[in-house]
Records
---
Amino acid sequence: MLDLRRLRLLRELKIRGTLADVAAALNYSPSSVSQQLALLEKEAGVELLRRSGRRVVLTPQADVLVAHTAELLETLERAEAKLAASLTAVAGTVRVAVFQSAALALMPEALTAVARDYPEVRVEMVQREPESALYATFAGDFDLVIAEQYPGHAAPRHPELDHVPLTEDAIRLAVPPSGLQHAGISSVAAASSAAWVMEPRGAASRHWAEQACRRAGFEPDVRYETADLQAQIRLIESGNAVALMPDLVWTARNIPVRLVDLGGSAERSIFTSARRAGAERPAIRAVRETLAAAAESVRRPEGTD
């Protein structure tokens, strides 16, 4: 009989790539992971791992076991979800991955609602970029992820994850509130000579912003790079940059910049994803419900140009 815990280690190695990463994810030592996989090889009676330089790679026989292990783990997760749903109390821990503007705009109200309405639910939140967070949720590091998708830039899809729309978020051009240098900016094209602040390369927002500038006929002068939207806002309000900013960043705060409306097509989609096998767990459903209510209550900026 093959040991399910050792099979899980094999699947983790397939997902994460190295023994060290498996050990870090599961709080084991690398030597312990290696020993357990060696025992699994003896149980299976076939070679499961081969050395490739400093790494180990899975054999075709190991891939067969990984596929069946994924099915077994999904069955167990569905069973746990149904067991939890059979109880009267909504309880348990929900690990949530969230990007910055959603963490600022949606999570405070949602956390307050969860604490009030579901006192036996514990929410743990980690800020992560959506693309890596989606993969980490597939891998089992999180139970729920709040992610974003920009126009023309599809977010990664994992068959094991569901996709539930949460809200739409308009994107506007943010320019300094005063100064002759920025007074005439009323469109992306009019900001062709301005200094821009954007997120680092690789972020979906950066790709979308660069494409918006190129469609307007120029290559943006990205003088400042930061993933911190609060730092971006300070650069804009101080007169040093312009940027394309989503409406969620202005939630529950005064708007210290001038916002230029770009039209209905300039908006991102915000959604949540959970593993399908565990999505019906009452605690996950409760967190999703409170997030939907928080998104519905967000007030959008008024008085844009």
---
Amino acid sequence: MAVYTKVSAEEIDAFLTQFDVGTLVSAKGIAEGVENSNYLIETTQDRFILTLYEKRVDPDDLPFFIAMLDHLAKKNQPVPPMIADQTGTKIQKLCGRYACLIKFLPGISVTIPTPLQARATGSALGAMHDALRGFSIQRPNSMSHDTWRKLAADCGPSKLDDIAPGLNDLVATELDYLDAYWPNSLPQSVIHADLFPDNVLMLDDKVTGLIDFYFSCTDIRAYDVAVTHAAWCFSEDGQQFDSTVSAALLDGYGETFGLSAEDRAALPLLARGATLRFLLTRAYDWINTPADALVTRKDPTAFLNRLKFYQANPDVFAE
């Protein structure tokens, strides 16, 4: 979550008149994240998240996201459905952006996960994958393996080396390796593709919400596990790996869905791909984020450290 588009209280108040949600009490921009503009809204009836869709969300993809969230909600998954207005419409326009009002879910995002919290998250990811078995709508991954080479080029060799000396050559070598060995034959499904701790809401050791599905897409299912592993099992700077959190996360996933032998064998490669993907998108945002945007830029080297770990420790996923 973030704020790129600034919306006044008066504009939010007028926007809310389209819904049966009461009148505005307060609105606060949310700085975390890098994708869309988000506000925490409190009305006389309840609390909501107001989202304005920014540069990386294609308006043509919004029906996919609505259908996916509706499907998961009907399957009793802990997801925040979009709120329909008085005409039944879920997507509106606000300040020149497509926008929606989303149900607020209780809970907090943890910063240093415990093994119990990681197990609960792995279990929730597996339950979500199970619930999506019957979901037939597909969406290509806009940040798939096939896009990473162009993303690296868009960052620029010198700019990558400004982030970390030698980074451009490291990225080029890793891209060649992933192109040669990427496991395209593994089972695919709709995945979250961005299940970082700040996209999971928890109360104690219980998952109360899975949020921010705007990278959700059809891709290798085990890649979702690799993304979540890279996001949850390291210190924020990526320099420390927590093996107990790793084991708990994978055990939790096994409780509700599970990994085939082929999936588990591919996880080291998928994890390298996941870390390269987030290294590159963070690098691009680090280079290109507007100076006046209310958004917290995220350090690309945190995922450079994770990538180096997975390169050096291919047995980390062994049972």
---
Amino acid sequence: MASLLIKNIEQLCLCNINSEAPLRGNEMSAWNSINNAFLLVEDGIIKDFGPMTNAPVAVSETIDAKGKYLLPSFVDSHTHLVFAGSREMEFVERIKGSSYEEIINKGGGILNSAKRLADTSEEVLFEQAMQRLDQVMALGTGAIEIKSGYGLSYEAEIKILRVIKKIKEHAPIPVKATFLGAHAIPVEYRSRRQEYIDLLINDILPVVAAENLADYIDVFCEAVAFTVEETKAVIRAGKQYGLKAKIHTNQFNSMGGIELCIEENAVSVDHLEVMNSEEINKLASSNVIGTMLPSAPFFLSDPYPEGRKMLDEGVALALASDYNPGSSPSGNMQLVISLACIKSGLLPKEALAAATINGAFALELENEVGSIDIGKRANFLLTNEIPSIAFLPYSFGANSVSQVFVNGQKI
């Protein structure tokens, strides 16, 4: 039986976590850690951990982690990893003064990506997405969600979801798939919105279900995309096929998306840059996870989510990258954690919990990843030799991860 011992760990973080519910409030910074610790891995699974005084001797391989912190790998619960081409010219337009909404209304944004994707083969999309996956894994991501939504047609949406299914089959980390056909109204349907929604519900969803192409369903509930009533129709249609909801909402406007998602028992509501006190209180009283994507407002120069207020009110907060070509062309979860601290007021330990165990809950993977617990996958990372855990978000822009392990194997 292959075994790996990580010894002399400066601090083993986020261990012995209660995986019955996501962390909230004070729990976000009160998670367990062990100084001068060991971690034992057998056959890709966490077998044991504890203080060095209890470390085993007979193992196949040993790594000395003196001066380093050991963390569970990040769980990136909101990405758009499958896309064709970049959109740096829109980046330039925003610098010149155009807003994200103005770019979308001119046929750019998501619609631009959809046009490119339609002309790109499944093989090329798969190769490009796997390269991106390798990059984010090297930065510490050990589980990920990937959405469709850059197709916006029957053929292209199914194409993306088939690519994601192939990624699932080849990726060494857990991958969850989300059907986001309701990402934008295609240009040709702008004067007949209901026809596009009918296409999603009546034509695409049955194929998604028949081919087992998605774990979740998503809608961009926003003024530039879909109304609350349209969102409700899509959520309820997905529910008929066993697809739970993970919804984009409150990125630019407060328009009832939070209340709808609570009523419909969504797994998460994602973005949350614009939230009023009533919405925060309702979200805190629900089982819906609030996922902040701070690299999106960073890139778009938009307001940041009120993370401190949401956390203090008791919202179960997660963090994700929103990796996509238009509003967050980065899957670096270390930067996401830094931004959550710097711009949304989370303490370092709170941000790390949001990016690991709560991210796992946002993908219903809490029994598999997100913390250092016996029986979970050995997906974890070792930092460089750093003075404290707070140094990780403090040293924004730097890669503080020295080694990444997936299923107990160094990558």
---
Amino acid sequence: MKKLVIFDLDGTLLNTIADLGNACNYALRKGGYAEHPLTAYNYMVGNGIRRLMERAAPDASQETIEMLLEDFRRYYDEHCTERTEAYPGMPELLETLTAKGIKVAVASNKYQAAVERIIAHYFPQIQFSAIRGERPDCPRKPDPSVVFALLNECPTPKADILMVGDSAVDMETARRACIGSVGVTWGFRPVSELRGAYADHIVSDPSEILTLAGADI
């Protein structure tokens, strides 16, 4: 049985795309830039909010990006739980893993304060062993530093770890950290991206993660 399962947040545990897109559109609108359909944000998120804003406003200067980011954060901090929802079966999956004695952790490219607030709102009953969002002292995924930081908080042999995510970023992070990867099909990116990133496993139902973790008995 595995000892630790590391989850991506956006597109894996939670469907956050509407709140992310609305916050980005608010900042764009306020800055005089064209807004985007919410579905377009599936391919803009995943590398942190700075990269999101750079993709949403590719012609903006870095000075303007800073202004847009301030507006984004201000809006998102107030509205990040309006339309976000846990994916079906994910709360139950987390509860079962922890009941079986398997530690759970989060590794996200979303800024730390937002990660902590959202997790506390949607999973108040879950005791996460570690929660890592974007921090100034740690490179973003796919750099494996986030995994190593998590392991400093909850030391675990790499053979006993799974990393679960919905994008190539997560699969590449796991590969660089030399831990097993699980791609989920219910997130923001297509299955072809997961296959192209050489996911060790691809699942379409949370119950399959229980099996891979050896917790289905």
